[in-house]
Design goal:
The protein has 24 helices and 16 strands. It is elongated, with a radius of gyration of 30 Å. The strands form four sheets. The chain has a five-stranded parallel beta sheet, with helices on both faces. Strands 12-13-14-15-16 form a five-stranded mixed beta sheet, sandwiched between helices. The protein has helices spanning 13-18, 28-36, 51-62, 68-76, 82-86, 88-91, 112-134, 141-151, 157-161, 163-175, 188-196, 199-214, 261-270, 277-284, 297-309, 326-333, 341-350, 372-381, 406-424, 430-438, 441-453, 463-474, 521-534, 537-544; strands spanning 40-44, 99-103, 179-184, 220-227, 243-246, 259-260, 287-289, 292-295, 355-358, 386-393, 396-402, 481-488, 491-498, 506-514, 548-557, 560-568. With 569 residues, the chain is α/β, with parallel strands linked by helices.
């Protein structure tokens, strides 16, 4: 039996519950919000970690629609969930307030006017949703005309700057109650504006919108704002003394965004896929929010969909396909001008290690590239790195951070691979090819070592890494065909180069070894050459007609390459 459908891409709480999707219960968040009573709550979490669904949940819990039957229906959505079991004073908050819910995630256009038009559309839709509730209850004609101008997308720019505050005023006149304001993905317009070149204009609009709605608004009960970064108070939340920010470092609200270990085990048990736990951990676990370990929910739901159909389905990098991963590309491209610092730190991360950085939660999009530390901070808060440990030194907090899991490691590996492929095309390979053809083993080793210095080494310097690296270098030759792991003689040669023309042509056999100590490099070369002889790798090449055959034993230790050779003719 398949069980309940999985809510892949479903971020509307009512739809999720009414359609019988599998739901990981996060309603205890409501109790914590009511207990803490912060007026403005800012939650920053990586993309696709359940922020939109949680805001939708809050809307259906708190909203008084003005319709008794609809309110009762909304209450039934929470039947059997954790928050219902609390009852008492918490139950009295259900259906009690007018709720304003606006998502800003669609503002991803290339110029300010188009992005602003999308924000205006989102605001107008929320005005439209509340039109029936305020009609006939707004106290003066001028305010009603202003309401309809915003509703019909024909308002002045100044109208939209204060539109959330004005909507809460109009709802108060209708309900005699203050509003709950929910703002989803507040920083998407800012991120897009920065990368598209109109950050200052967009930041000014968002700042004014928020100031009017969240600062000294007499019609505000409380607000919840979500985003990826906590853009500093000076930039967006100017003078907002009622703001409580909960980042991934904060130990409050830890388990409400993303799936916990217990929730993952329960899900796997429900679908009869307990044996997939280790693979799920390796690929999608690893995040640390506060003191709680968290899995990536977007990737989990997609992978669960696959393994329900086929228990042996391979994990895939689902999260990497949901965004451009531009920040990782930008980090890697800095290697072109790097003095070795970024490269060294990336290699530590790629080989499973951790780096330590001072953390600045108030980073803004317009200062991401001012320092390397800002760039590492951005990667940390957006989910490309995880917390391993933290310490306090004076006024600074330092976090040891590493790559969370295989899925995120794939993003780095793919980005680095694309970068290096481009970089390889700029290398002058003539000296390497000449050394190979002339049997200059010292020259081959020097040239390969020089190119290794330009790379990011990962997989703990495994043989597959060096094999791919050397094959990539040699494939740039227009003179030779490059064959990898080709079956010849009594085995498989690591790399074979051969000219298309046999008469007067040449073939080269390269066997690779990797050693764990610098002192063992010469022995590695000798073993490689012995393998070429014992496995008779030259036999097939000779049968093809090649008379000029070179053989090289190539040994690697970290970024050192040593080569020994024999002339086989």
């Amino acid at each position: 039996m398949r069980g309940k459908p999985l809510p892949v891409g479903v971020d509307d709480f009512e739809k999720l519950i009414a359609k019988g999707y599998y739901y990981v219960d996060k309603t205890w968040m409501i109790k914590e919000l009511l207990d803490k009573k912060a007026e403005v709550n800012l939650f920053t979490r990586p993309r696709r970690f359940g922020k939109t669904l949680n805001l939708s949940m809050l809307r259906y819990y708190f909203e008084d629609t003005g319709d008794i039957e609809k309110n009762q229906y909304y209450k039934q959505l929470f039947s059997g969930l954790a928050i219902e079991e609390v009852g008492g004073e918490y139950a009295k908050e259900m259906g009690r307030y007018p709720v304003i819910l606006v998502t800003l995630k669609s503002a991803k256009q290339r110029d300010y006017q188009d992005a602003l038009a999308c924000l205006i559309e989102a605001l107008a839709e929320e005005y439209s949703r509340h039109e029936g509730q305020v009609k006939g209850k707004i106290e003066n004609q001028a305010d009603w005309e202003k309401y309809m101008a915003i509703r019909e997308r024909r308002g002045e720019c100044a109208d939209y700057l204060t539109s959330l505050a004005f909507l809460s005023k109009c709802l108060f006149q209708s309900y005699k109650k203050k509003s709950v304001i929910l703002i989803d993905e507040y920083d998407v317009p800012l991120e897009n504006a920065y990368f598209s070149g109109f950050y200052d204009e967009m930041a000014s609009f968002i700042r004014t919108l928020f100031e009017s709605a969240l600062k000294s608004n007499p019609y505000l009960e409380f607000a919840v704002v979500t985003g990826c970064l906590r853009v500093s108070k000076e930039s967006i939340f100017t003078g907002l003394n009622n703001l409580r920010a909960y980042s991934i470092l904060n130990e409050n609200y830890c388990g409400y965004f993303g799936f916990t270990e217990q929730e993952i085990q329960a899900m796997l048990l429900y679908y009869g896929r307990e044996r997939n736990l280790n693979a799920v951990r390796e690929w999608y676990d690893g995040y640390q929010f506060g003191d709680v370990g968290v899995y990536n929910p977007w990737s989990i739901l997609n992978h669960m969909e696959d393994i329900i159909t086929n228990p042996d389905a391979f994990p895939e990098p689902y999260w990497s396909n949901t965004s451009s991963n531009k920040i990782v590309r930008d980090l890697v491209h800095r290697l072109d001008d790097d003095r070795g610092e970024v490269k060294g730190q990336l290699e530590i991360l790629m080989n499973g290690g951790a780096i330590e950085k001072a953390i600045h939660e108030g980073i803004t999009y317009d200062n991401i590239y001012e320092t390397e530390d800002n760039l590492w901070n951005f990667l940390f808060f957006t989910g490309y790195l995880k917390k391993v440990s933290a310490r306090k030194e004076g006024k600074e907090t330092y976090v040891a951070m590493s790559i969370p899991n295989n899925e995120v490691a794939y993003i780095y590996e793919h980005t680095i691979s694309v970068w290096f492929d481009k970089k390889q095309r700029s290398f002058d390979m003539s000296s390497l090819y000449l050394a190979i053809e002339e049997g200059d083993v010292g020259g081959i080793g020097e040239e390969v070592s020089r190119f290794l210095e330009e790379t990011i080494s990962y997989f703990d310097y495994g043989e597959s890494y060096y094999h791919g690296f050397l094959a990539g270098l040699l494939r740039q030759s227009k003179k030779y065909q490059v064959l990898s792991n080709r079956e010849v003689g009594l085995g498989r040669a690591d790399l074979i180069l051969k000219t298309p023309r046999i008469r007067g042509g040449r073939a080269v056999v390269l066997e690779l070894k990797v050693v764990k100590r610098f002192q063992d490099m010469e022995r590695g070369c000798v073993e490689a050459l012995r393998q070429i002889e014992e496995k008779k790798y030259r036999k097939e090449l000779m049968q093809e007609g090649y008379g000029d055959i070179l053989a090289y034993g190539v040994c690697f230790y970290r970024k050192e390459c040593l080569v020994k050779g024999n002339l086989l003719n």
